[in-house]
UniProtKB/TrEMBL annotation:
Substrate binds at D121, H161, D169, K365, H370, T412, N451, A452, R483. GO terms for molecular function: beta-amylase activity. The keyword Magnesium does not apply. Belongs to the glycosyl hydrolase 14 family. Coiled coil: none annotated. PANTHER family: BETA-AMYLASE 1, CHLOROPLASTIC, BETA-AMYLASE 3, CHLOROPLASTIC. Its EC number is 3.2.1.2. GO terms for biological process: polysaccharide catabolic process. Keywords: Carbohydrate metabolism, Glycosidase, Hydrolase, Polysaccharide degradation. The keyword ATP-binding does not apply. This is Beta-amylase. It is an enzyme of class 3 (hydrolase).
Length: 541
């Protein structure tokens, strides 16, 4: 039987449904850890200066403290709604909602905290698992109704990538089996590095317009998927479902899979590798070189660009005066980044046509690749497809493309500070965020943010509050917090979240948290081995 959004059939049986109550029904029954009054004042300086503490009561140690209000622009006092990402495995392999009663309780708690809504991945590998054009939206239908019942909003990610093998991936959801079957027949359907390693995270953009998926092109497959979603959930679009984030690459981000963590291929802060060695990408490169009248440039990617875990100065291409700045290097990087922009524009154009008139926002996600940002070549950004160097702004073309399609520019690493990063990696997440804020402001595109890594401490929240304001560049229109799990509901962590949401609703001008004192892991892959066991023991909701 075909189910519709209004169908009474559900994965929640009637007996179980009777136990569900909305936030309004049982708000008085939920008890959260008491938030004590602030114990000392803070004077906030610039992000590069230390926070000075004016001690008033050392016996009471709280994360959040009163801050004397200062004058800000109107934009900096705008309310910034906060969303919370749901667990990656919110929907099971079988298509049902995982732990629905626990999820309902979690949604009620988030509502009580003042959260605007939640975000969920709609995995291609789950929905179209049973065959081409055979969609199973049942678990997501149940989730949408539950979100609505709790008075929350929903951001939905069209996740055309696999889950597993990257930072924070807690489960494995591969691409649909029938797609994997096609890949086994034709391995060039996926991204490939210079050594011939195949990456099954996402279909190579080199075959975007070729009918390689049982008679359909990848773009047609993504389009059909989004159209099916629109038809199934049309009664909720613009009301409950307020944003569609369109996946355009690994981790749902517009980028190449240049730093894959699976099997230890890459580790922070390696420069990564170019992903242009499947036959479709090689053919495109050769055609571009021929058009330039230099056939030799199209015989492959740079021969001197090094390996995944090297540093820029260890390579001929990325070093200070390397090949990246030569005529050949400029040709290659222009081609490599242009292909990524064309891929994103094609998918977003399709999404724009499908969701036009639904009152849903469209968004696209760009990765916060902050390591080696303080070098001339910005090697890690280049291998990911962002042609951003000391002499060239690589985020302005992306912002322009998003603006053309009316798409929100969603950016990560909003919680990171330069001083938290290892000196040897030449990181500058703050400089990177400033650059993106300026690029989006210059073209008039809306900017939203996420934290790249799980953070529960006051320092992380303070940085988000700082970057959310429009004091330097574009302010944030929304922020999505990563991620809902059991650890978030620990008393101190929950207090921090509640206060953070309150601050964001007030424009971030009334309170700021103190610096990080929780020994949180602050940058990618510098995670202590002892934390691996702890993470394994944390059962997500």
């Amino acid at each position: 039987m075909a189910l519709t959004p209004c169908s009474s059939t559900s994965f929640i049986n009637k007996k179980e449904r009777k136990n569900y109550r909305t936030h309004d029904d049982i708000s008085s029954m939920i008890c959260f850890a008491k938030i004590n009054p602030p114990s000392c004042n803070l004077k906030a300086k610039s992000s590069n200066q230390e926070v000075q503490f004016l001690n008033s009561n050392m016996e009471e140690k709280e994360k959040f403290h009163m801050l004397t209000s200062s004058t800000h622009s109107n934009n900096s006092s705008t309310k910034v709604p906060v969303f919370v990402m749901l667990p990656l495995d919110t929907i099971s392999i079988g298509g049902n909602m995982n732990k629905p009663r626990a999820m309902n309780a979690s949604l009620m708690a988030l509502k009580s905290a003042g959260v605007e809504g939640v975000m969920v991945d709609c995995w291609w590998g789950l929905v179209e698992k049973d065959g081409p054009l055979k969609y199973n939206w049942e678990g997501y239908d149940e989730l949408v109704k539950m979100v609505q019942a709790n008075g929350l909003k929903l951001q939905v990610v069209m996740s055309f990538h696999q889950c597993g093998g990257n930072v924070g991936d807690s489960c494995s959801i591969p691409l649909p089996p029938w797609v994997l079957e096609e890949i086994s027949k034709n391995p060039d359907l996926v991204y490939t590095d210079r050594s011939g390693r195949r990456n099954p995270e996402y279909i190579s953009l080199g075959c975007d317009q070729l009918p390689v998926l049982r008679g359909r092109t990848p773009i047609q497959v993504y389009t059909d998927y989004m159209r099916s979603f629109r038809e199934r959930f049309k009664n909720y679009l613009g009301d409950v479902i307020v944003e569609i984030q369109v996946g355009m690459g690994p981790c749902g981000e517009l980028r190449y899979p240049s730093y894959p963590e699976s099997n230890g291929t890459w580790r922070f802060p390696g420069i990564g590798e170019f992903q242009c060695y499947d036959k479709y990408m090689k053919a495109s490169l050769a055609a571009s070189a021929d058009a330039m009248g230099n056939e030799s440039w199209g015989r492959g990617g740079p021969h001197d660009s090094g390996q995944y875990n090297q540093f820029p100065e260890e390579t001929g291409f990325f070093k200070k005066d390397g090949t990246w700045n030569s005529e050949y290097g400029q040709f290659f990087l222009e081609w490599y980044s242009r292909k990524l922009l064309e891929h994103g524009d094609t998918i977003l154009a399709s999404a724009e046509g499908i969701f036009k008139g639904t009152s849903c926002k469209l968004s696209g996600k760009v990765a916060g690749i902050h390591w080696h940002y303080n070098t001339r070549s910005h090697a890690a950004e280049l291998t990911a497809g962002y042609y951003n160097t000391r002499n060239k702004d690589g985020y302005l073309p992306i912002a322009r493309m998003f603006a053309k399609r009316g798409v929100v520019f969603n950016f990560t690493c909003m919680e990171m500070r330069d001083g938290e990063q290892p000196h040897s990696a030449n990181c500058s997440p703050e400089g990177l965020v400033r650059q993106v804020k300026n690029a989006t402001r210059n073209v008039g595109v809306e900017l939203a943010g996420e934290n790249a890594l799980e953070r529960y401490d006051g320092g992380g929240y303070a940085q988000v509050l700082s970057t959310s304001r429009a004091d330097s560049g574009n302010g944030l229109s929304a922020f999505t917090y990563l991620r809902l799990n059991k650890r978030l509901f620990e008393p101190e962590n929950w207090r921090n979240l509640v206060e953070f949401v309150k601050n964001m609703s007030e424009g971030g001008n009334t309170r700021l948290p103190e610096c990080d004192s929780s020994r949180t892991d602050l940058y990618v892959r510098f995670v202590k081995q002892s934390h691996a066991k702890k993470n394994a023991e944390v059962a997500v909701v």
